Model the fold of this input.
Amino acid sequence: MPTPGWAPMNTARILAYGALGLPLAFAALPIYVHVPRFYAEVTGMPLALLGLILLGARLLDAGIDPWLGWLADRVPRRRMLALALLPFGLGFVALLNPPRQGAGVWLLGSLALTYFGFSAATVAYQAWGADIGSDSGLRTRLTAAREGFGLLGVVLAAALPSVLAAGMNDGIVRLSWLLPPLLLLAAAVSFYGVPAGPAAPVSHAPLLASLRRVFADQAFRRLLLVFVANGIAAALPATLFLFFVADVLQEEAASGPLLALYFIAGAASLPLWVRLAARHGRVVAWLLAIVLSIAAFAGASLLGPGDLWAFAAICLASGLALGADLALPVAIAADLGERQGQAGACFGVWNLVAKLNLALAAGLSLPLIGALGYVPGGGTGLAALVFAYALLPLACKLLAGGLLWRWRSSLELQP
Done:
C-alpha cells in the first residue's frame, strides 16, 4: 500500500502505468481471435485437431496462473513483470510465423512460450496496480487506464493486418514483428513514469495455504462465479467472430473495421463507466452493461447475409458494454486482493478463470460447430454457428446478470 512519503498517483502517473497494457492487449487479439482461423487456413489443420491443441495449451497455461500469482506475492512485482516480457515477445513472433511442416507441434510450443510470458507479466502487472492504488476509486482509475491502453492496442491489432498487406493472413504475419518494439517503448514509459513506491507486503504462506485463503473469501467466490458466466459469454463470440462475419454476413473484408469499431467503442466508454461506478456503484454499472450486451446478442442472432450496418450497430453496442466488463470486475477483484493482503494470489486465480473461459470457448465451440456440419467458407452448418456465436452467449449473460443482482450487496465494497 502507498505510504505518506510516496509520490501521489496523479493523472500522468496513472496513464504511464496504463501504457504497458497496450502491447499486452496488442498481442492478445491475434492469439485469441486470429490464431484459430489463421492456422486453419495457412496450415490446413483440421478444426477438431486445432481446437484440441488450443484447449490443451490454454488449460496448461491457466494451470500455472495460481503459482504465478503466489510467486508475485513473494518477489518484486516490477522485476517479475520485466523478466516476463522476453519470452512473451519471442513466443508471439514464433506463433505467427509457423513452418510448413510440423505446424501442430510448433503451435503448441510457441503458444506455451507466449502464454508463460504473457501470464507472468499480466499477474505481476495487475498486482502492481493493486499495490499503488490507495483506495477503491484510484484502483478503478488505474484499471481503466490499463484497460483503455489495452483497447487501443487491440484496435491497432485489429486494423493493422489489412494495412500491412492485401491479405489478412499476410498482414497477421507482418503484425507479429511490431510487438517487440512496442513492448520496449511501453515498458520504458511505465517503469520510468511510475515511481517504484513502497515494497508490497511479502507473503510467506505456502501455495496451497495461499489458495485456501483466496477461496475462503465468500465475496471473491461469488465474484468469480459471475465472472465465469460473463466471461464465457465474451469468449464464445471472440473465438467465432471471424467465422461469423465471413460466412453468416458474407462480409469478410469488413472484419478488421468491425473489430476496430467494437474496441474503439469499448475504449471510449471507459470514462463513462468509471463515472457511473463512482456515482451509482460498480455493481449497478456492470449490470447496465450486461443488459446492453443481452440486447446486442439477441440482435446478432437475427442477422444474415448483407446485414453489415445492423451488425456494425451491434458491434457498437457490445463494444460500449465491453468497457464495463474490462474495468469494473477486475477493480472489485483488486479491492478484495488488497483486503486479503495477497493481490498476486487473487489475480493468479482470477486469470486462471479468465483463461479457462477462453479455453472452453475454443476447445468446445470449434469441435461442436464442426460436428453440427459447419465448414468454414463452405456455406453449410450456419445455424450451428449462429447458435454458438449469439444464443449461447445470450444465455450466459442472463445467468451472469441474475447472479450479480442476487449478490449485489456483498460485491459492492465501500471505499
The radius of gyration is 20 Å.
